[in-house]
Amino acid sequence: MTPVYEALSARLRAGRPLLLGGDAAASLRARGVAPEEDGGVGRAVREQADVAASHYDVEVRSGVDVVSTLTSDTTPRALALAGMAFRSAALTSRAVDRAIEAAERAGRPVGVAGVLVKSFATESPDELDLHAARLVAAGADLVLVKARGAPDDVITAARAALATHVPVWAALDVEDTTDLGWLAARARELQQLGAAALLVRSASSAAIRRALEALRGDVEAPLGVLLDAGPGCREGHAEGGAEPDEWAREMVALTTLEPRLMGGGRGCTYEHTAALSRALRRAMPSVIPPGA
User: Fold this and answer.
1) Are the CB atoms for 150 and 173 separated by under 8 Å?
2) How far is Cα 69 from Cα 143, in angstroms, rounded to an integer?
3) Residues 6+ apart with CB under 8 A from 244
4) Of 12, 145, 206, 280, which residue is the least packed, with the fewest Cβ within 10 Å?
5) CATH code of the domain containing 56
């Protein structure tokens, strides 16, 4: 456990929510970078390196406690769609390095989460193992795992991340109709595997509330929430989402369930993160330290 993660871990256990960023592709698009649908974030790390690097500084200024690396699309499989599979190791390392540099400039403890996403049904465990190892070798404080395909894919990604022996946070997607028995079983499995925190991501605050209420008495790991900007938002696109302040009010309403982590889902940009940071300062002044 790194010293930075140790500081973050204390805040998790103390019950003060840690703030994560939003949708990296949507945030980059809001700054004039238009990632392609296939391997786009990885391509941006190489072809628009200055903007990609400054992305982390903007995230820190918006108030995040944990910067998420631009590595969802730097796997060989994702970069192959952009004709750059051979650059996977270099671009992954670059993305993590830039995040670490921004975190060190923050003047307060800011963690770096290496993002590991299982995006393809045919992606093998060996590929995920390799990407997770590269994230940790580059210096990530923890690994944040997500899945774009089948809901159970997050388990596969978590296994790969946990093999690196760093803390792992795992995000489960939920909907209003998600079977709570299935959700509880997946959460228990992730906890038994060793996940240090569990997040639920949804376009619906009602679905998140329902999921947290079901999990609070069933798992001991800290719980977190990732709320999409709106029901119609796709990853990488903010169109159709709620205004940042309106979205932030929905998030603050969820603090009655005492989530330990809060951040944006699909369609959320820096503006959403900054709005949530301000709203939390007002509602819970001790959540974010002075100067954050």
Assistant:
1) no
2) 10
3) 269, 271, 272, 274, 275, 276
4) 206
5) 3.20.20.330
* 290 domain-assigned: no
Banded model confidence at residue 265, pLDDT cuts 50, 70, 90: very high
Helix (H, G, I), strand (E, B) or coil at 67: strand
Structure tokens at 181: 């028995």
**What is the distance between the alpha carbons of residues 192 and 15, in angstroms, rounded to a whole number?**
22
Cα 166 to its chain centre, rounded Å, is 16
Cα–Cα distance measured from residue 109 to residue 93, given in angstroms and rounded to the nearest whole number: 21
Residue 16 resides in a domain:
yes
**Residue 162 pLDDT more than 80?**
yes
Q: What is the mean pLDDT of residues 180-187?
A: 94
Q: In what order do the strands lie in the sheet with 142-147?
A: 18-19, 261-264, 223-227, 197-202, 168-173, 142-147, 111-118, 66-68
Coil, strand, or helix at residue 178? Answer: coil
103-112 per-position pLDDT tens digit: 999 999 999 9
Any alpha helices (H) in the chain, and if so which ranges?
3-14, 24-30, 40-47, 49-62, 76-80, 88-104, 125-137, 153-162, 180-193, 205-215, 244-253, 270-283
Position 289 in a domain: no
Q: How many domains does the chain have?
A: 1
Residue 105 lies in domain: 3-283
